[in-house]
């Protein structure tokens, strides 16, 4: 008996027309029945934002004759897209949610700013196995070909093995040729941060304003981190949880005088 | 010799004019030298969003003669406010960052949607001890008086004891009178989630749109959770980490066939 094809929800934060999501859709079409519900405009760095004080619009898009997927664009954030897809668009809970492929890294601390990963996390909170994919190349002309092999491998393994409860995957792919990529490493999130620099300017009316710029600082020398893996030619896979409790710190805080 | 007064950054996500932040400023003025850098408009449910494709404006506000704090309103998100404050406004790294008091709960899974907590987490990534405060009352007329005692207690304990590295606090305060609040409990984040319901409507031009609504579902019966503490009259304190790695899952994922 043929195995039932999985129902796959595809989303991203760069918007439904981004090359990264087109690459992801192409791979997912080889694996399952694909519904795309993604923002109608770029939503980078939106984190886990949701739309609570505004309306949400959702449009069914036409796809070309030889494309099997269904596509919907949504006026909201990546997390809105997941909520709308699961509750209003898909006929049943999807077997898998994939988000991306993001144009740019979501490794290390970037996971907390990332709309791509927030969409994956949102699906995770709904009990849906979920993976966010990012390529370390911000360019619109980025080459997603070398990434496809690893996306397929990881999605198939995820379908076969399942994911531990409360865990989603953060997958980052180095900007390298297929030959140069050395393989896959399961990692922890590097303990890095951003040091911001604001570019202060004056507008034509004489009012000061700022542009946010920053430098990524990684002082974590561990060889078990995503930053190490990526710098050494590996695809990094970090299992990410949305129980943010620092369980190890509960004992510490309980020594405080709190009565 | 008198102890040096700590430099305290105050922010929130309900906007600089919200009653919750006014209550927090009042308490912080009794403890240290206060700089307020907060959004010029409500930014609820913004999660860890940052402004990367737009300008940021920042205005120094006038305070009344008898108010000692400095105040700045910012056109960005709560996380933008923290970045701007630390890099452009404050003369040195603050000794503490407090965010809130949020109008409404940020307990359990709400921590991942919360602008209040994202501001606290951002300060945490910069190495600043940091606490987010929320009152379980959405009303603009909420009574913040009973909360003030616990805010003062927790901030003083935080200054005295410090926080473990990579940990910030998520403090939620029940909507109860001073007499009814039973004390403080250090907790873990309850394993709860939102079940969304979308209210589908048609606009005057005949186009469908949605309002996001939802129901909070908590099937976690543990008595060590924030939900239990709040339901039983306690102030909940959850230590929150921004290393999202599910360390326990690394071994599992390493059993996958990844080569």
From TrEMBL, chains A, B:
Keywords: Cytoplasm, Hydrolase, Metal-binding, Nucleotide-binding. Binds 1 divalent metal cation per subunit. It comes from the Bacteria. One of its GO terms (cellular component) is cytoplasm. Its cofactor is Mg(2+); a divalent metal cation. Nucleotidase that shows phosphatase activity on nucleoside 5'-monophosphates. Transmembrane segments: none annotated. It catalyses: a ribonucleoside 5'-phosphate + H2O = a ribonucleoside + phosphate. The gene is surE. It is found in: Cytoplasm. Belongs to the SurE nucleotidase family. Gene3D superfamilies: Survival protein SurE-like phosphatase/nucleotidase. This is 5'-nucleotidase SurE. Residues 8-196 form the Survival protein SurE-like phosphatase/nucleotidase domain. The lineage of its organism: Bacteria, Pseudomonadati, Bacteroidota, Flavobacteriia, Flavobacteriales.
